[in-house]
Amino acid sequence: MLGFGLSIEPQLWALVFTMVRVGAAFIAAPVFGAVSVPLNVRVALTGAIAILSMNAVPIQAPGEVFALATFLAVAAEALVGLALGFVLQIAFAAPLVASEVIGTSMGLSFASAINPQTGASTPALGQFLTILLTLLFLAVDGHLVLVELVVRSYELLPPGQAWLAPGKLQNIALFGGYAFLAGLLLALPVGFLLLCLNIIVGMISRSAPALNLFAIGLPASLAMGVLALLVGMPAMGDYMLVIIREALDAAQSLVLG
User: What single Pfam family name could you report for this chain, choosing any that match (predicted)?
Assistant: First the structure.
């Protein structure tokens, strides 16, 4: 009997309780939380990881379902899971910041498409960089590292003691500035070349005021941007690996300690 005359299998209740933290992490995390992932796949994956966690670490579910302590424990579990996924989601915002910087200089800020990760309208260049970052995340087994972090969180933050300290929440919020820093550094190779091009176009406009800059500057910026992306893509790919590593390290240090 688990409260109000209701009965439930203890193993089933423990599984549902474990799925709260795992499901919250997958909802907030990239790749797993994409709107293109069907709901039944998310539930099945959450249940599978929850069973893995139960076998790896002994998890004690609250004794009663309808109790204030149980509601607080469920809220704490959801908070830990959301924090783990949110830290990774912050890092995945860096390509969107970079696309805004590059797209504005190239004249592609008006080109937008539906992002398969969030379902929102984002710049087309940002969608390309996000897909590239997602493929690199999967290539370096970042999704497996995330699953490992979720399982390890039950050892470091066992149920009942999972409330995050205010200092941790503040550090997670301050980590949001990393998205802007990483985005600007990611756009640096292409942005620097486009800045040089804009300086040259400005010098030409001062020397020949009658020259139509819209007929020359926009095609030149677009061509230079595409060429700069082609040349700078290896360096951008290397820095995306740095972003993934920093995000995984931050998820472990900021949330798990």
Answer: Bac_export_1
Q: pTM for this structure?
A: 0.81
Is 247:90 a contact under the CB 8 Å cutoff?
yes
Mean pLDDT value across the chain: 82
pLDDT (tens digit per residue) in 209-247 = 766 666 676 777 778 888 888 888 888 889 999 999 999
Average pLDDT (147-169) is: 82
* d(C-alpha 210, C-alpha 235), whole Å: 39
Least confident range of 74-83, 204-213, 218-227: 204-213
Measured in degrees and rounded to the nearest 5, phi and psi for residue 228 equal -65, -40
CA distances from 253 to 13, 92, 113, 141, 153 (A): 30, 18, 35, 19, 11
